[in-house]
Design goal:
transmembrane (chains A, B); disordered N terminus; homodimer; membrane (chains A, B); 66% helix; Four Helix Bundle (Hemerythrin (Met), subunit A); 775 residues; Two pore calcium channel protein 1-like (chains A, B); monoatomic ion channel activity (chains A, B); Helix Hairpins; 3-stranded antiparallel sheet
Amino acid sequence: MPGAGRAAGVRRLRPQPSEEPPAQEEDQDLLLAGAYVSDAQYNRNVPFETSPQAIRLYYFYNHWTMQVAIYFFICVDLSLALFEEPALFPLPFLATSIAEVLCLTAFFGRLVHFAKVTPQMVFWKDTKNICIMVTIVLTLIDLIIYGSLEAVNIHSVRWSRALRPVFLINFPESRQIRRTFRSIRNTLPDILYVFLLFMFSVLIFSLMALKLFGDRGLQTVEGLPYFTNILEIAFELYVLVTTANSPDVMMPAYNFNWWYSLYFITYIIINTYIFMSVFLAVVYNNYRKHLKNEIRKLAYLKRHKMIEAFNILKVKVGTEFVVTEAQWKRLARIVMPHISSPHLELLLRISDEGQKGHVDKMNFLRLADLLNIQVVTINIKRHPLEEWMPRVYQSSASLLVQRMVRHRIFVWVYDVIILINAIFIALDEKNPFISYAEWLFLSLYIIEILLKLYTYEPRAYFGKKQFWNWFDTLIIIAALVVTVANTTIQSARKYNSQQILDIVLILRILRLLRIIVSIQRFRLIVTTLINIGPTILTFGGLVLVVYYVFAIIGMEAFHGKVRFFDPNFTTPDALVCGNPALKDSAFARDRYCKNNFNDLASSFIVLMELTVVNQWHILAGGFALVTHQAAKLYFISFHVVVVILIVNIFIAFILEAFFVAYSLEKSEVETAIEKKIQELGVGIQEEEMQDGKLVDNMDTKDSGFSGDDGDDKRKALKGLYFRIASKKYRTMDALLQQMFESEIAPEDEGPSLDEILNFSPGDIYPKNPNFENSA
Amino acid sequence: MPGAGRAAGVRRLRPQPSEEPPAQEEDQDLLLAGAYVSDAQYNRNVPFETSPQAIRLYYFYNHWTMQVAIYFFICVDLSLALFEEPALFPLPFLATSIAEVLCLTAFFGRLVHFAKVTPQMVFWKDTKNICIMVTIVLTLIDLIIYGSLEAVNIHSVRWSRALRPVFLINFPESRQIRRTFRSIRNTLPDILYVFLLFMFSVLIFSLMALKLFGDRGLQTVEGLPYFTNILEIAFELYVLVTTANSPDVMMPAYNFNWWYSLYFITYIIINTYIFMSVFLAVVYNNYRKHLKNEIRKLAYLKRHKMIEAFNILKVKVGTEFVVTEAQWKRLARIVMPHISSPHLELLLRISDEGQKGHVDKMNFLRLADLLNIQVVTINIKRHPLEEWMPRVYQSSASLLVQRMVRHRIFVWVYDVIILINAIFIALDEKNPFISYAEWLFLSLYIIEILLKLYTYEPRAYFGKKQFWNWFDTLIIIAALVVTVANTTIQSARKYNSQQILDIVLILRILRLLRIIVSIQRFRLIVTTLINIGPTILTFGGLVLVVYYVFAIIGMEAFHGKVRFFDPNFTTPDALVCGNPALKDSAFARDRYCKNNFNDLASSFIVLMELTVVNQWHILAGGFALVTHQAAKLYFISFHVVVVILIVNIFIAFILEAFFVAYSLEKSEVETAIEKKIQELGVGIQEEEMQDGKLVDNMDTKDSGFSGDDGDDKRKALKGLYFRIASKKYRTMDALLQQMFESEIAPEDEGPSLDEILNFSPGDIYPKNPNFENSA
């Protein structure tokens, strides 16, 4: 939205210079701006008529309350599956159907609103909108049919429930999930050929197995005939690719003759190792191409937008076109209404190097990036206690305490305490002495936090990026509250609440994680993992969509076929999960009765187990017994979609993230702006602050509170500075975008808008690949 | 050796110009030359004194018979484990120990020979040589101790057997395996920190599990207490990372309370998915860095050697140093004695563009690459039948047959025949009609081959790279021979030999693979896989080394503890694998008795099953029951070494190979020489020949015999041409090396020799990574 807002702002600068757009939150990184610009471009949801009403409607469409509302309705719609038959919490059909109609109305309203702020042509060309409308209509039809059949007591299938994730995917806010889906769609043709070849190989091996083992009269451990039916063989061999039935599938043949193991070894090398790696390679390669393409698109789109804005505002001074200082400042104020005057002056100093009173094109194009750089005010925040009672805080005893806390021995002492704590936790807590020790540890931790708050400035200690301080304090406070609550309940009612006890235990153990902070190498790995976090959530969304569809299908097909009885029940019915067809099956023998599709939560857990792959053939076999052999197709297709596609994309993503992190460790990436800021001496490297080399009470520090030499620098540094984002804290996308931008020549106008929108991943390869990027 | 030979040749050019080195085989690609040069450089086994005797000794050392002999002794030494207790084919200790001493003598002799052709200083600095000597001494000591103890009937451990792979690794010929080991060694520090963090995470989760589930009194399916011992929990959770005990390990807790599944889901996401991907990322990243570094080293070493040679031979002509044509020719003839005169003239035409009678430095440096480019003579080879009986062969009936065979309908007809054949194979062959059909198919295939041989020139049909033609013919001939043999035996003795029947069946089914050739996309994937083949063999060597060491240790620890009885035996002893400790264990229940360490072959199969991972905890549990719980450490360390390190390197390798293949598909890589050859019009693209666009009876075609327009071009093209290697058939290393070389400026002399030898992978990153190589 900031991007779109900016473009809108630029446009409105001439006709209605007085009107102010609603407050824009300062966006954190370049990517966000780029992404929004691109999205605005995709949707063309920039108001083309500039009437005040249209603009108000547009800003209302983008207002955060509207977005929260739409997400709320999506959540309600998806969670309806919890209340519909087969339900975790049953509700009458009338209630759920009314809720669903409400949601559909909300989605339709949102769509109408969107149509109002978008040119008709563009609106109807967008497949997203068509998708949503079709889904709404289909859902309504399904509801009516189901409702009327239900009224005459005929039970039918609520098939439209599997369409619900369409709403999650197709609203403009789910850009990341859509991007991943696009990436999957583009991978499909390549994957398909490898998959066909792989299936061909499985079939050839199945034929061989049929001929080699079919007539030997061999038996499996369960006493069933071994490898006599070509379809069963193909299934078993497909399972072997997932390794789930290794080595059991080999044992009868191996027991019969030593040499037959060679058949299975060949099969495993070719199909399990080579083909599965090839799948990963195909998925990864495509992911990579696609990522590069999207980022190139974003970078060019941003450039394009900024050039458009420049062309609207430019005036001719001398021989070149420039933007006057006044216009420039007004624009900056419109885009970012809460910008402080010193901040604006600083930006101007960067943009108008020669103090000529105007900004040239090259510097104007950087405006968006410039606004995205955080500016920090370095002024020494004094500790509140120092202000309230300077004499006590500055007394020699107090200073001694502060020096103690700052010393690294203080950290070590607490590391030792944590280790002792770990040993105590491992010991039996039935011993009263040990449960008293728990109180001791808790108070030691609380003392630590209080001491730190005494020594460090509290606002700095709880700074935005002080992940570990927040983590520590929250864990300790939660542990304190829950332990006290538990003790109160225990002494009052002589009763231990299981849930509360569990929470206490988990909190107690999570405290041990703090030891990671003390080891530098560990901290680096964890930081990388935390940076990946947000994108892992995108995968969460993707997995949710796929799981939801499969869960709905699974519930329609398998609900009620397998029932779970209390594990202490040993009636014959309980032993076969309430279904005689499961007698003597591996499913019943392994007590998998609770792995069923009787409600949404159980279905999700079964699907999770299928994702982990192991024993999936037993689950598939069990559900095939209670329904039909064709049920195995459901499980095979789940395996293909989730394990071969989605898990491989996940692995590709982690690989890529780590490669970027590794290659950055050894090199310097700076944008042109950062270089300029450095030259002018108005920037601070975030690393410098993090490593405690600078002042120790700014709100930008990360960890390592052992800065003793902070005092001298503290005096030297005052005033307003740009904060140059640390490499560690940049997201992968932002980094890649910066790298790409630094490769576009400053005067390069980029391809035309249509070209940009039609970039294909294939274009990305250089004509002559060089050594660095191919190995 | 060619590289070393070349360098030696250059050196000897002045002192003894008359002496000729032994015949050098034309080496196939640039890499080989580079690798040899590098190896010569590493080992300094280039004779520094130029006495004829020393040179003879040096050539004798590098003679192929010596290399075959040393490989033979390595094989004998390694296969001794088959004959020593616990033996597959028992031999008395005296026999095996004499064989071992013989091998050791051979190794020592080879080492002494090597010392004679190497400067003392260099020889003693090389850890490889020290390693071999120490291993020889240790093995002798062990043999003596074991022998004397055996003489007084005390059984001790033959520990030195685990050292045998040292010989395989440390002889200079196993360069590739050493390279992979170096790569693993360099990965270790990075892996170690991730592994420690991972173990820390497993421990934290174990503590949590102990507290959450330990006091619940839950039971596993086998009725054992669930999650009560911290060490057992840690083992179970480690197994869960490999997914081998999912979802069984979760079921008791999940049955008890729905919410506990969240604990396991969290664990699986963090440890199984994220940490395992991070391991792959670390291994892959390191593999990549290392590969690049080695290739850079090779390229610079080659450049260095060639400059050295140039400096010896140069004379001043005008203002620049050059090599005279006569010297250049003599050098080429010494390096490649069997070069034909037209070939040499062609090379000269490339090197001496201006026909000035001398070769300048830049062109001289290319000599090695130039000699490596294959030259083909395009002259129309007539079909032998055409020469013997031209009238019959050129008759209209014969021409019709030839046109039929060349037509693509011919290919389609045979594809249909293969499919029908596949259906017949799948049907029951007890039916006599079907077994007669088999004869029909066999004769159809034979007719196909005969027709093709009639139409195409036989030497072209069985050309070097005609993989599928060779495959076809061999399979058919083998099937014919074995089927005839089988029928003879059957009718003579009324007896079906099992082995022969199995081979017939496999051959029959392998024929179906031909269908792959008909589908273009399949052929591409298979070609890439075949190109990777040679390097996969390197992994074979690596896996062999690791498996051998683990097998020897396993045999010492576990042999005889588990015994296999015939599967039809159902005595109580047979059901517990001859060991009462296994009563009621999962190991015995699953009939894993044949998975034991009672001989080398069985051990290798168990280790293969452990590599596939599934059920490894049951194998580990079984062997822990019959020996000691500490036995699990053996299995865990095998998992860490093989699955976390070696399998990940294997995956990394396949990923990289596919990426290179993909990025080449879209781009053109040509070395400077190839460009020049193209400019001069004396080159033929291998692709052109493969796609059947050119003449169809040259010995360089690949597939696709449907060239109808060959006749015209056939006349146009005659004489000597360079064959420009197809992209498809280049190895990955050669490709990467070419890419890198095309980036070294022609006048760049490269760093000094010492700098080259001390390149570290860390140097490889560019100061400012660019967009292409980071994403």
